[in-house]
Amino acid sequence: MTQRREIVLGVTGGIAAFKSADLCSKLVQAGHGVTVVMTTAAERFIGATTFEALSGRPVHREMFSPQEGFHQGAHIGLARRAEVVVIAPASADFLAKLAQGLADDLLSTLVLATTAPILVAPAMNCEMWAKAAVQRNVEQLKADGHHVVEPGSGWLSCGQIGQGRMAEPLEIQAAIERLLVVSQA
C-alpha cells in the first residue's frame, strides 16, 4: 500500500472511458483518494454512478458544485486538493482545449487552476491521432510541462487497427505513481 495521495481523475468523451473505471479502481485499491470529474461527453459513454461506487466519492460535473462550496467553485477546491490531475481518456477535443488554455467546463477550468502535475492519456481513432493538429497539440502540452502517456496500437472501437487506444490502466497508474514520487521530493 502506498501513501494516500489525492488524485483528480478527469474523464472525457470516448469509448475508452470504461478503462477509466478500471484505473479508478486500481488507484483506490492502492490507497489513494480519487475524485472523478466527468465532462458532458463522458457521460454519454459511462455513468457517474460507476465512478461513485468505485471511488466512494461524488462525481463532479458542474462548475459551481455544492460539494465544493459556491463561493469558490469546484474548480478551485478540487484544483487545490489535487496532487496529480489525470485526464484519461483525453479526447482530441480536450487536448485542443488544454493546449490552447480554453476553460469552458469544470475539467478544463480545473486544469488551468491547478498547480499539480497534469497527466494526459489520449484516446481516439487512429486517423484522428495521426492528424497534424492533434500532434501539434500534444507537442504543445509537452512543451507546457504536461505529461503524456502515449496511446497504444491495436483494435479500435471504430473497427480499425492502429494507434489511438488509451494506454492500459496499469501503465497510466505507473506514470501517476512516478509523478507522485517526484512531486513529494
Instruction: Kindly state the number of beta strands.
Output: 7
Mean pLDDT: 91
Outline type? globular
Strand and helix order? EHEHHEHHEHHEEEH
Q: Helical amount among residues, as a percent range?
A: 40-55%
The largest beta-sheet arranges its strands as 2-1-3-4-5
Let me know the largest β-sheet. Answer: 5 strands, parallel
Rg over CA atoms: 15 Å
Structural class: alpha/beta
Query: Runs with pLDDT <50, length 5+?
Result: none
State the helix count: 8
Query: What is the end-to-end distance?
Result: 19 Å
How would you characterize this protein structure?
The chain has 185 residues and is α/β, with parallel strands linked by helices. The protein is 43% helix and 19% strand. It contains eight helices and seven strands, in the order βαβααβααβααβββα. The longest helix is centred in the last third of the chain and has 16 residues, at 169-184. The mean pLDDT is 91.
